[in-house]
């Protein structure tokens, strides 16, 4: 891996390029920096979510996710390098199974709303989806391992589930979309 940063204002990016971890330089507008930036933004939003009151096990999971996202970003910054390990994906699968088991079945689409923590989890989810799309776009032009794409896909699912969990923390519930179908079904029941 490249040298650790010793200064931040290097001015080497003034020409519109950025350095990758293998010491190559690419346009800041190319796919790899876009994917790296989206992963970094996701990690920052998770940091903001961690400012909220969260159950301890959710907090521990999200702190670990931040570390895994840093690994994922590192892997994106060094073409051909592997930093994200298989157990990271397994951790997400286990967390999804654990938290999904606690939730009632969805009756309708839900809005990205509710408590502040749940709404922030939804913001994280949408940024994870964008990062996933950027990784998919990057894969179309370069050979890559599937792990970064799979991790982001699973993480966005987990963030959706965690938003539902967080909305229930103090007796709340999902905020359902008021669809015409749902309204007709409720009218039929009355």
Describe this structure in words.
The protein has 190 residues and is mainly α. It has a single domain (26-187), classed as Cobalamin adenosyltransferase-like (Hypothetical Protein Ta1238, Chain: A). The chain is 58% helix and 3% strand. The protein has 6 helices and 2 strands. Strands 1-2 form a two-stranded antiparallel ribbon. Strand 1 and strand 2 form a beta hairpin. Helix 1 (31-49) runs antiparallel to helix 4, helix 3 (86-100) runs parallel beside helix 5 and helix 4 packs antiparallel against helix 5. The chain is elongated and about 65 Å long.
Keywords:
single chain; 190 residues; mainly alpha; Hypothetical Protein Ta1238, Chain: A; two-stranded antiparallel sheet; ATP-binding
Question: Got a strand count?
Answer: 2
Question: What is the tally of helical segments?
Answer: 6
Mind telling me the C-alpha Rg?
A: 19 Å
Q: How much of the polypeptide forms β-strand, as a percent range?
A: under 5%
Global morphology: elongated
Strand adjacency order, main sheet: 1-2
Helix content: 55-70%
CATH class membership: Mainly Alpha
Largest sheet: number of strands, sense, barrel closure: 2 strands, antiparallel
């Amino acid at each position: 891996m490249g040298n650790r940063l010793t200064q931040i204002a290097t001015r080497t990016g003034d020409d519109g390029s950025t350095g990758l971890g293998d010491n190559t330089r690419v346009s800041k507008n190319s796919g790899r920096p876009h994917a790296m930036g989206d992963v970094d933004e996701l990690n920052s939003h998770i940091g903001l979510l961690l400012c909220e009151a969260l159950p301890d096990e959710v907090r521990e999971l999200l702190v670990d996710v931040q570390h895994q996202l840093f690994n994922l970003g590192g892997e994106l910054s060094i073409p051909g390098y592997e930093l994200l390990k298989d157990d990271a994906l397994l951790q997400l699968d286990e967390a999804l199974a654990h938290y999904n088991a606690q939730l009632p079945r969805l009756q309708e689409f839900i809005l990205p709303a509710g408590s502040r923590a749940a709404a922030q989890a939804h913001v994280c989810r949408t940024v994870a989806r964008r990062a996933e799309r950027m990784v998919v776009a990057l894969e179309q032009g370069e050979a890559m391992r599937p792990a970064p794409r799979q991790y982001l896909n699973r993480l966005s699912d987990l963030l959706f589930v965690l938003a539902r969990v967080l909305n229930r923390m103090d007796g709340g519930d999902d905020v359902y979309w008021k669809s015409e179908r749902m309204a007709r079904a409720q009218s039929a029941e009355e």
